[in-house]
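User: Please predict the structure of the protein below. I'd like the answer in structure-token form so I can feed it into my own downstream comparison script.

Assistant: Understood. Taking the following sequence of 74 residues as input:
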Amino acid sequence: MDAELTPAEERAIKALEKLAKTWPKSLWLYSASGSLNVMKKCNGQRVMLSGDGRIGPDWQVETILGIENDGGDW
């Protein structure tokens, strides 16, 4: 794999690193079926539905388009 980054790729990574420094602790990102969702925490916790591990969709506040993503594991 060619791990060399273009200047645009380097800027994008730096922008994410900068965003991470100011990201509110009350929000978290959830990736599902290629959708990158901004979720609100409830009482400081990620909201899950009863016991099955699914995410509480009522706590989704925005979907971010244009950033390819995947919620799978390695």
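That's the full token string. The chain has a mean pLDDT of 89.
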